[in-house]
Amino acid sequence: MSYSIFKPSIYLNDILSLKQQSDINPLNRSRICLHEFNSLEIQQMIINIKKSSYIPPHRQLKCKKSYMILDGSLILYFFNNTGKLEEVVHMDNNKKNNPFMLMFDAGRWHTVKSESNYSTYLETRNSYSLTDTEFSTWAPDKLKLIEGLAYINDLTKERDLQL
Length: 163
Fold this sequence. Notes:
The chain has one domain: Jelly Rolls, CATH 2.60.120. It has helices at about 10-25, 145-160, and strands at about 5, 30-35, 40-50, 60, 65-70, 75-80, 85-90, 100-105, 110-115, 120-125, 135. A 6-stranded mixed beta sheet has the order 1-2-3-10-5-8, covered by helices on one side. Strands 7-6-9 form a 3-stranded antiparallel beta sheet, with helices on one face. The protein has a two-stranded antiparallel ribbon with strand order 4-11. It contains 2 helices and 11 strands. Helix content is about 20%, strand content about 40%. The longest helix is centred in the last third of the chain and has 18 residues, at about 145-160.
């Protein structure tokens, strides 16, 4: 993914460090793992993404997830199997009308986008395996940052038309 370390306790300085790591990482994101091994049943990560980060739509076939926004604002996009936008969830911990935590089932196509310059969130998942992750064929690859950001911007425009 990006800059990643294991740390069982998180402090405010760690969040600031994540932002700095996101600034120098080519993928514009970073994370701290709260779990020491990928084989653990429950895994948690503090993830920081910049507004200029692109994460392609993907799904985990056997893994449930939850996101809890810690700082900034985040948009979650959910898709059907053909890539049609199904749901958009704006997450923010400062606004009463937006959730600050969201859970979703395994197998759901999704991606996230930072709406603020930086967004920091806690991701919790169960039984994760790299072979369980499937990336979409209908969206740009993670290494095609410019095309990926254009794709996400188009989703944002589509979302705004739905409001």
